[in-house]
Amino acid sequence: MRRAHGNGRAKPDGFLHLNNYSHVNASGLAGVLYDRVMTDKQRELVELTLLELSQGSDVAHFKHDVWRFSKKFLHEHFKSVVYSVYRSIRKSPAQEVSMAISREQLQEGSVSVARPGFN
After folding, report:
1. What is the predicted pLDDT for the residue at 5?
2. pTM (predicted TM-score)
């Protein structure tokens, strides 16, 4: 693929910002929590905790107006940091997801579904 004006596409540098990593399969359900359920303040706690863990190493840098972390570092720390933030604010991630699903379900209209016959 080519960019405009004939420049080639930049090679990936192995760093991702948290929003991109939350969409990677390796982020698991913690990625869903981060992307869909957490508030902006809670996401900020995750980012600040990861920055604190990355102190003194070259696994994080600020680029394109956002902190970016190495994939390896995120594979090792992302899930535990997300769940630690929930423990620190004394909320259950399972309950938060359940409430989010219930809110969404109440906002949607019901549709009549025919029961399939398994003969």
Report:
1. 67
2. 0.82
